[in-house]
Write a structure and sequence with these properties.
The structure is a single chain. α7 crosses α12. By secondary structure, this protein is mainly α. The longest helix has 27 residues. The chain folds into three domains: about 240 residues, Rhomboid-like fold (Up-down Bundle); about 25 residues, no CATH class; about 35 residues, no CATH class. The chain contains 14 helices and six strands. About 10% of the residues have low confidence. The radius of gyration is 25 Å and the shape is globular.
């Protein structure tokens, strides 16, 4: 129980990056346990309760199957079956997500993860239903299941690579390089190896990449196309969040004696949050800071520069 309580506390205290990783790992462990139990009692690791869960978590590129399970367009991006699959996805998500949160914020990270994953599923769905090379599999009645966080992770990777293309990171066996080269190579690999199998997954990568690029490009122009979705997430979070008593007025009565008459002085305190006025910074100031981040890293920023970057990212 202590381990479970510790996990719950870490989940609550963590940022959206750690929460996304926790959900992915939690779903993976849960499925592996079901897989083990299925093998122990039936001799087939993919039968019984496991089959029911995986069938309702992975998405489908055949509209005839997807029509009855539309929620899988969301759940598939949190679902993995292979250990190496989830390992590489979570490592990639952690590395890119840390840069993303440092320069932008956790709310945007969650929005781009979900919207990028959805965009990836949509592009893969369109490819398997309209490209002659792939539509034959749908015509044959195959369900064409797809799962994994790759499309969502690619959206975050391309988004941050587009937002700060000259941001320098150090890779094992490669050394220092700019994010833009990592993005170009990753996208090129998915395009060039489309004929070699896993076309659904590669189209999901490309769909996530396209959304990540569009989002970052528009954000640099001053428009956040994910704002409506973040507002929706806020609305949902408020509905499920335990209500706390706020803006309550507490009265204190201080009894005083004045000229033989009893008088009372009443004080009222409002238990409410105060907000500071957000300063507006010019795009030139922000660009200078982003250039500094790209050349010397986020940690090289002064406290004031970090405040400006954080304030501007929230304002956008």
């Amino acid at each position: 129980m202590k381990v479970w309580e510790h996990i719950q506390q870490e989940f609550k205290r963590g940022n959206n990056l750690t929460r996304i990783i926790y959900v992915n790992v939690g779903v993976f462990v849960f499925l592996r346990i079901l897989n083990l139990l299925a093998w122990m009692f039936t001799g087939s690791p993919s039968s019984g309760v496991y089959a029911v869960f995986i069938d309702n978590l992975q998405t489908y590129l055949n509209p005839s199957f997807l029509l009855y399970k539309p929620w899988t367009m969301l759940t598939y991006m949190f679902t993995h079956e292979g250990f190496l699959h989830i390992l590489f996805n979570m490592l990639w998500l952690y590395w890119m997500g840390r840069i993303f949160i440092d320069l932008l914020n956790g709310k945007r990270l969650l929005a781009i993860y979900l919207l990028g994953g959805f965009a990836g599923a949509v592009l893969a769905l369109l490819a398997f239903n309209f490209l002659p090379a792939l539509s034959q599999y749908v015509d044959q009645g195959n369900a064409i299941p797809m799962l994994g966080a790759s499309g969502a992770v690619m959206a975050i990777t391309v988004a941050i690579g587009t937002y700060v293309p000259d941001y320098r990171i150090r890779l094992i066996f490669v050394g220092e390089t700019s994010l833009k080269y990592i993005v170009i190579i990753a996208v090129a690999i998915d395009i060039l190896f489309l004929p070699d199998g896993n076309a659904g997954g590669r189209f999901a990568h490309l769909g996530g990449a396209a959304f990540g690029f569009l989002w970052a490009y528009k954000l640099k122009k001053g428009t956040d196309i994910s704002k409506w979705f973040m507002n929706l997430l806020d609305t949902i979070a408020v509905r499920f969040k335990p209500k706390k008593q706020s803006n309550m007025h507490v009265s204190y009565r201080n009894k005083q004696e004045k000229k033989g008459k009893e008088t009372y002085v009443q004080y009222e305190e409002a238990n409410s949050f105060s907000s500071k006025k957000t300063e507006n910074y010019s795009q030139a100031e922000i660009d200078v800071i982003l250039d500094k981040v790209a050349k010397t890293g986020y940690e090289s920023l002064t406290k004031r520069e970090k405040e400006i970057l954080f304030s501007s990212s929230n304002r956008k």
